[in-house]
Amino acid sequence: MVDRKTNRVITLEEYIIQAQNKFPGATGELSQLLRDIGLAAKIISREVNKAGITNILGEDGSTNVHGESVKKLDLFADRQLISALNRSEITCMVISEENDGIVELDNDGGKYIVYLDPLDGSSNIDVNVSIGSIFSIYMRKKPGSDELSEDDALQPGVKQVAAGYVLYGSSTLMAYTTGLGVSLFTLDPSIGEFILSDTDVKIPDHGTIYSVNEGSYHSWDKGLKQYVKYCQVEDPATKRPYKARYIGSMVADVHRTLITGGIFIYPNSSQYPNGKLRLMYECNPLSFLIEQAGGMAIDCEGRIMEINPESIHQRTPIFIGSKQNVLKVKEFLDEYAPESINS
Ligand code: AHM
Ligand code: MG
């Protein structure tokens, strides 16, 4: 996107500063934090792109807090993001998928708390399929108090002050929101800068793609089974049958949903009674972005961002995307709720 006044492109750094200048009282700390994440994202992107060459691919032999094997790039991304956030001393703690408890940073008086999924979709790393980093930013509940604890970080998604993701795909892009719409930036590798590519992105109200791991069909509740059948039935009036698309990287699947509309689902099932995806660093940030774009995100009952978290790594089912698609799946979930195999 080109600045109409100057007729030149706008970098992420410039855009963040311009946005900050619209708020005369702003301290600039949140802007700095977003710039820190942007810097780490560039370093991670470089490493993701040359992963095959440098033999960084593959598992490092350890498991993370969820018992999943950790790939080397997960650890690299985790370290880069945490050290970028540590540098400007604005953030007091980080909670990351790769770390069991809270990670206290050097400035324990910092007023921000950042949740991270440093490299989401890591099972796709070895096969060159898109992966992403997700971040979610909160103000600390009790600024200035001596002890940092998980309780400071346990806040519902509606309290997020900013959230975003970086998608390492055919190009690397960053999407973020501070609650004033969604902005998109594309990394130009030749100059090493994220360039503004779109502002105030809106998700279509209705989409024709459904995205869910259908291999797990037999472990789903009846309502979801019936909804997926509904997606497959021909009805020109509602543009059905819908197309099925599933990458297996939430960032990539949700990004496609943001741009083309439709729905992404990771449900509860007999295998995952509370769903698989993590509330605080996967579902809340992506819900914030999709809501800011005019879409919806729910668990089986209500809005994802209104869930009061009980633990930093808790999981939730998620149904996220275009308003009409999410409302339709909710109708099915409600109708068959009494027959749910997991209730
Ligand atoms: P990860 O954080 O370990 O990479 O797992 C999360 C990923 C999501 O990106 C994706 O939507 C989901 O796991 C895919 O799971 P499944 O293979 O069960 O469909
Ligand atoms: Mg993840």
Rg from C-alpha positions? 20 Å
Strand content: 15-25%
CATH superfamily of the largest domain: Fructose-1,6-Bisphosphatase, subunit A, domain 1
Characterize the quaternary organization of these chains.
single chain
Protein name: Fructose-1,6-bisphosphatase class 1
Cofactor: Mg(2+)
Catalytic activity: beta-D-fructose 1,6-bisphosphate + H2O = beta-D-fructose 6-phosphate + phosphate
Subunit structure: Homotetramer.
Describe the structure.
This protein has two domains: 2-198, Fructose-1,6-Bisphosphatase, Chain A, domain 1, CATH 3.30.540; 209-335, D-Maltodextrin-Binding Protein, domain 2, CATH 3.40.190.80. The longest helix has 21 residues, at 29-49. Helix content is 31%, strand content 23%. Strands 6-5-7-8-9-10-11-12 form an eight-stranded mixed beta sheet, sandwiched between helices. A five-stranded mixed beta sheet has the order 14-13-15-17-16, with helices on both faces. The mean pLDDT is 92. By secondary structure, the protein is an alpha+beta fold. It contains nine helices and 17 strands. It has helices spanning 12-21, 29-49, 51-54, 72-87, 150-153, 222-232, 250-260, 279-292, 323-336; strands at residues 2-3, 8-9, 59-63, 69-71, 91-96, 103-104, 112-120, 131-139, 162-168, 172-177, 182-188, 193-198, 209-211, 243-244, 263-266, 296-298, 318-321. Bound molecules: 2,5-anhydro-1,6-di-O-phosphono-D-mannitol (AHM) and magnesium ion. Magnesium ion (MG) is lined by residues 97, 117, 120, 282.
